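Data availability excerpt. The first of two example chains:
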Amino acid sequence: MTDVIVVDEVTRTRTPDGVRYECRVSGLGPSHPLRFDVIAASHTPARSDDWVLLSLLMPAMQTGRDLRIDGRISPLFLYAARTDLQFALRRYDPSLSLVRIDADLCLDPAPPRNGVRIGTGFSAGIDSFAAIGSFRAAGLVPALAVTDVFTFNVGAMGGGRGANVMRAFRLMVARLDEFAALTGRTAHAVDSNLQLFYTPLRNLDFVRTHTMRNMAAASLFQAEIDHYLYASAYSYDEITIDSAATMANFDPILLPLIAPEGMRFHSANAGMNRIEKTRVVARDEIAHRMLDVCVAPAARRAEAISQRRNCSRCWKCYRTMVTLDALGELGSFARVFDVDHYHERTADILAAVKKKGTKGSVPDRAAHDCYVLAKSAAAAGLSVVQAVGGPGGGPDRPALND
């Protein structure tokens, strides 16, 4: 390997399913090209090659190799990538090194657009459903409404390109298409081999790098989407950058730094904690039959997605079921959770959630405390709303507009 990662032969090619973005990467390890396949009925190619820099900046910093891109990068993004973005990433992970970035500027003017298009990812999880309803909850629809939904295969479904990973992705795309049809939105999917460029490197697993990976895919829609809502996993109360456990801990800081020219990235609902978002999602009838929070391995995930059932055994299923039970809403989700198993093992499940909370998981601790508070209130004859707050607000937080 050399001291420089060289990216060249950056191309965009029309395919029967959409557009393929591809480039050759030398000096990083894998001999295959980096590839992103946009799967969409229609797609206007991005003006810049920001997807390349978003994809490879963290691997470059992890290896300490400068990055030379034979492509064109948005001016503000290139400036951030050479300065503030690297400083923020090093604050997040001190093992990363500062690197030089050489690339040309993309100075193409943005074409005129008719209307505002707003996109967000659709994983069918709590954060995802909450992001889709964020402007509706604030009373700003139809002036601001999510028009486009996305599913990206950039590592969330597991390492490599195995049969189980690809089956899970295809099932998620089918679910995306169904959701888009039900709600009158436009669906887009992106399949990438980006995971192969991260797997050999230490400390760059998906949870540590997901924002950079997902936004690399989102940036491909620079010429179509005005605002992209990235579903926040943490509230502002939990934002930290110093050696954070996950990249989600500083999304509101990171996202403005990595947006391409003509497109804005927003941290959706960072003002709400997970209990509040779960309460909002609990009123969504589509979520009652589509909610998917499961983090089981790829083979079990694929099976669960095909059956529209969460495994109801992983830590994330546990936390969500405990929260829904505390809110008095678990019965509404009987089609996607094994509610009988939950009721048979409630004490054990609650203990598992409490244990994860005591080890530092703020959402798990909040779920456990919410459950204890709700059950204590019920014993005293109080309602769930009186115990944990009205729609969109907790005991000490203002309610959102309905």
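And the second chain:
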Amino acid sequence: MPASPAVAHAPAARSPIKVLVADDSAVVRGLVSRWLGEAGHEVVATAPNGRAAVDALARCSPDVVLLDIEMPELDGIQALPLILAKQPGVQVVMMSTLTQRNADVSLRCLSLGAVDYIPKPESNRGVTTSDGFRNDLIERIRVFGTARARRRTALAPAEVPSAASHPAAAPVSRLSGAVTLRPRPRSVAAPRALLIGSSTGGPRAVGEVLEKIGAPTLRRLPVLIVQHMPPVFTAVFAEHLSARVGLPAAEGKADERVQPGRIYVAPGGRHMRLAGTAAEPVIRLDDGPPVNFCRPAVDVMFLDAATLFGGATLSVILTGMGSDGTAGARALVEAGGILLAQDEATSTVWGMPGSVAKAGLCHALLPLPEIGPALRSAIAERA
């Protein structure tokens, strides 16, 4: 997850977002409650464990639940399905320290219905002094609380979402306005790479897209992914993709040759670049400054791919906050490549895909379930 820009802490103009904070540390509960109050939100309950969080739901009806993974009596992954069953549609954001186990649990929680996760400093002192953690937390409460309020307004009383539904989704008719789609290029080159950019909500979306393309089709070309994630998480994310899709998947390594049938995930905290030739591309890792407040950044990989492959690319921008990927997408489509984007209704956050759509860079704007089949067809046709 990228470092976030500074967040203004002025009181919110609209009704405050209601938050339940579940963490076994009294220090964390107190600090988070204070920060959210200063940002204009309302902490309606705190809980020292998952059982207390589940019990508090009926009393406080929160918009967002901040749920720590490691808690006594009932931990985060045990409490999550109970919370979603008791209050369908509530936005659950997991909190966890940066360990391999917690990264694995956090990603499993996303597949169970959590909307996002926030890496938490390992110590209470780290929590106290980390402006990045504070800003990330406040920004995510704002984004997901707003999505929850919008969904409540958009849905008729009979249209109560199930716990298995995309928590931030809302009816298509209530969401994205008209966007101008880019006409398909007349001359179409066989693709040399599939490029994917994503952020908030991306781990679940990327997995679904690749699974629906299918391993037989994906063996024809390499898949290069920039998912905004911290170190440790990206390695575990790659392992999850490999198990789900049935192809080798790992973090990209410096000077590694890019080969068909393999999935390369940009390592957390480093830009993943491309060099070499179109016939023999290689990965370069870059510790340069963040781009669009992100490292890894989608723009960095997309811009290199446009130079290296020209029009021989298929690319997709999936759910995520911000506008990372727009500059790179422009370079790709101007070189003759094909770009798809996820629609607003199925995006957890329609920031990145919304940015490329509003810029008129998409050849297709599709709901998540249709993106994989569309890419599978495009790969087969162009091959």
